[in-house]
Amino acid sequence: MKKYLAALIILLFSISTYAQTTDYIPTKQNLEARQWFSQNKYGLFIHWGPFSIPGSGEWVMNERNITVKNYTRLEHFFNPIDFNAAQWVSMAKNGGMKYITLITRHHDGFSMFDTKYSDFNIMQSPYHQDIVKQMADECHKQGIKLFLYYSLLDWRRDDYQYWTGRTGKGTGRTTKGDWNNYIQFMKNQLTELLTNYGEIGGIWFDGYWDQIDVQNKEQKSESRADWHLREIYDLIHKIQP
Questions:
Q1: What pTM, to 2 d.p., does this model score?
Q2: CA 13 to CA 93: how far, in whole Å?
Q3: Most CB within 10 Å of its CB: which of 83, 88, 103, 184?
Q4: pLDDT classification of 25: cutoffs 50, 70, 90
Q5: Which backbone phi and psi does 43 adopt, to 5 degrees?
Q6: pLDDT band for position 15 (cuts 50, 70, 90)
């Protein structure tokens, strides 16, 4: 049921994040979702995208200081013709896993789904097929929950507040865009993800830490950026209560 979307409270927000939404009162469904997630700990987390081509993991753009211009070229080589959603989902289910978390957009900014709000996406690659849709359809068919990973930070866009962030300093960005435009971009993409792919178990955010003091390992210091988290949280539950 859609109530499990509320599991994002546990998945997404650190103590510092939750501090920004202290007026939130968990619903009965939210509490049930937390319990479900705490009891179903075994799942598959799929890290996969153009960053797989260099073979150095999803942080390769940051670690090798690859410029936006050069990294974008990977889009033209990413062509996973042997991908089979049915096999991946059945493997997870047969292994006793209770859910799958799929990367929809990592820090490199590449969207693994058909989006109107970025031209750096799977539909512009030679593969030209929506990975998220294939996985969502198969998860619904086989009866396993699908969670969607979505990066808050972006090493590619210049409206992401990279100048106060901890990573992505060597990707060649020189202009400072409008942060509010970036927030709207995320809202637009989240709306697509929560509207076009049926029931979603939860949204897994990553990247809040990019705007926190690197010395504070517990992430209790104040963020350098206003993430508009309450607005985003309300949007998620408005679309999928």
A1: 0.89
A2: 27
A3: 103
A4: confident
A5: -150, 175
A6: very low
Residue 86, amino acid: A
Q: Classify each residue of 50-64 as buried b or exposed e, where b means 16 or more C-beta atoms within 10 Å of its C-beta.
A: bbeeeeeebebbbee
Least confident interval from 7-11, 195-199, 212-216: 7-11
Angle between helices 229-239 and 179-195 (to 10 degrees): 20
**Which domain range does residue 17 map to?**
2-239
User: What would the mean pLDDT of 205-224 be, rounded to a whole number?
Assistant: 82
Identify the CATH number of the domain in which residue 102 sits: 3.20.20.80
Please classify residue 219 by burial: count the beta carbons closer than 10 Å to its beta carbon, then call 0-12 exposed, 13-18 middle and 19+ buried: middle
**Residue 204's beta-bridge partner residues?**
149
**18: pLDDT strictly greater than 70:** no
CA atoms within 13 A on the CB side of 135: 27
3-state secondary structure 113-165: CCCCCCCCEHHHCCCCCCHHHHHHHHHHHHCCEEEEEEECCCCCCCCCCHHHC
DSSP 223: P
Sign of CA dihedral 160, 148, 59, 117: negative
Mean pLDDT computed over every residue of the chain? 90
